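anyone else get weird line breaks when pasting these?? whatever heres mine. first is seq + tokens for prot A
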Amino acid sequence: MKKRTCIGLIIAVILSILVIGIVAGQSMQSTSSSPPATLPWVMKTVDAPSGGTAGQYNSVALSPETGKPYISYYDATHSELRLSYPVASSGNCGPNNSWSCEVVDTSGNVGQDNAVDYYYNSSTGTRKIGISYYDATNQALKVAVWSCGSHFCTWHISTIQTTAGNTFSSTGFNTSLKFDSTGAIHISYQTRNLFADEVLMYAHSVNSGGNCGVGTAAGKWQCDSVTTDPDAGEHTSLAVSADDSIWIASFDSSSGSTGTGVVSICTWTGSLWYCTNIAYVDGGFPALSVDGNNHAYLAYYDAANGTLKAAEFVGAGDATANCGYNSVPQYTYRCDVIDDSIGSGVNQMGIDLAVDADGHPLIAYEDASDLFGISVLNIARPIDAYGQISGNCGPQVGILHQWQCDTLDNATEGGGGGHLHEADYVSTAVNSAGLVFVSYYEYDDYNDEGEGRLKVIYQQHTVFLPMIVK
């Protein structure tokens, strides 16, 4: 019988290669014209100690060079500061050991209230990671800096300020850290006093002549107060704009004119701090970002009303301005309710904000409104980021909502059973291609002891292979 040669279509199974550009550091462009905000999400558990807790106070930064994420967080089981990042091999955590979970500092109870940033100078090839954090053992503000020399990279840990031995004062709470364009470090934090006002503090690295720093770091830091009040600096968020201006958002639970707290933004004028009260609310948890045009965006929590709110600088005289008095006084910000039901009276509300390359803010946040006690991870973005004409949340123009709010983790992975709580602590970043990365803490209260783990969810490009024709 004559042997037949099959000629025609060999239909290849439609394969999608999931290129995790934001993790692998690839700069692949999407083959679709769809906005980056519409691209799919991938969820992973990074650090899940059996019977233990890791992932609180997590903070994420992306390498400007590769897009690779670096996550600092607190390991409560071992009372240590850790850093996690994806690796091609020799990992010790994450799916198939595809991540490295590295101990940064284990000298005492260290790592709460941490914040991370990544610095890269393309001209010099300089790379640095900076992590600010609280040292509970020594009542101190500390910083760990990873930097690379000509042959290898090392960690250098410094104490910036300490109140060790002082039973009436402690410093280093609620830290937020950013590098400026020169690689200098800027940190906001809180000092607490038993018989005096709390202080919102600001520290930055200097070559010499500073007024703080301990041991070999003496004189290498300048530490100054920004505001002083009975509850100043309860939560802080620092941003450095493209021109290296310093902005600090903070919450003070006792300075509101109506008996509530106040969320404010302070900026350094070159000679003094100028502070603008944005909103009088309880709750706070402000998250601040400033774009390349010195345009500020702020997300915060209104605990009394159980809402997520956002403020955007629009300038004096703008018809939409409704909050943030300047010295005239005139409103200079527009404040909007983004999600009107995320749970009221929550003591630890996860909120973070980033701004994409097109100037669209995005907010990752905890929604604790479920009556059965679980909380979920949500994301909110303006409809312009999706190319939509209407959303499902945020302010309305006519009948059309101007934001889109979606759930990323609904607390049912692995069965859930009504015992999972997502995003008490959450951090987000967006790369130059518009892909979003979110790190967050998941807590399982099924056992009396409870278990906590570090999780991530991120967007990825999908590339479809062409059909093979023979």
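and prot B, same format (seq, then tokens)
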Amino acid sequence: MSEPNQALTKPKILVVDDMEDNRIVISRRLALRGYDVIEAASGGEAISLVATESPDAVLLDFMMPGISGIDVLRSLREHHDAASLPILMVTARSEVESVVQALEVGANDYVTKPISFPVLLARLTAHLDRSVAQRELAEMNAVLEQRIAERTRVLALANQRLLQEVTERAAAEASLSTALAAAANADRAKTQFLASMTHGLRMPLSAVIGFADLMLKEARGPLGAVEYREYALEIVDASRRLLATIDDLITLSKIESGGVDLSGERFKINEFLVETARAFKGRTGGVTVLARENVTNVEAFADRRALKQALSGMVGVLLRWTPIGATITLEGQVSSDVVELKVTGEQARLGERDADTMFEIGARTIHAGDAPDLGAIIAKGLIEAHGGRMEISAEKGVAVRLIAPCLPEVAAIAV
């Protein structure tokens, strides 16, 4: 038969019986088993001891003078449930109705007279163990509820902080959106102003070039002094350079505003390369620009003007890095509906950061008297507007590849 754990506090048992002999026998045997036993000789005393001594279990005689066992049971159950205070009724074998009544009122169990101590001990131990387990479960539930409440509080604080962060981020995004919109408006205004200004400059500059040409042709008579012809040549040359810069600015403003209009046409790659190279004749400062005709009778359908301006822009860029007497080669091919143009300066040398910065506005320092170097930037913008990309290699000299899809109306063909 199991006994109380001596390492723990001894369970306290209240034995209630109006007959002293019965109390003594039960108390002694329970004490020998390690229980702490207190006794009550009446129902009133039992109710008082439960209030003052807080026993762990009660052995309650059914038949007692004065306050009966069933009345004591009823009184105790008003303040103590079956889990917190196990009550075992002690009754005669013939009192079946009494047993049923006691169980209905709230008794945990019963034992019959004469008492079988092993049965009493087994039932008492079982109910005490159950009571301890229920108390421990209640304590664990209380601890768990406390933890849940604390976790809920922490989550509520976290949600509050998250909501605050979301609100602050939304406000920051709204502010950023407003700033971006303002910047976009300012950029559009700048682009419109630049386009208007460059168009305004172009018209009188064209007139200057026209009148200088008339002077060179001596349309209204001889110029006279030889120096006047040289002056006129300088006027035409400087004006054309300035006009080229203005045209670059106009193109750049269109690229930045997304206003590049592509117009497809069919053209032969070889003729296109030769025409581009010929345009640099006499303007290269001792560098040869050569078209390599390696794709006979191959045609492409693309924006010829945009591709020519992009290719010419990159030739102009390579001229800055190619020594006098060297050659810049133009090549082209069409495959899988893609136009690929290549500009190679075999003796060209890039500066330490030029390959990384040539496509950035303001990356190259402009010295007094220089024109802005917009060729690479414009070439990149036009190729990207055509749906393509640019690649640069500086392992052996400098090679720039301009890769652009053919426009969708007509695919590239070999004639």
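btw re prot B: The longest helix spans residues 117-216. The CA atoms of residues 143 and 149 lie 10 Å apart.
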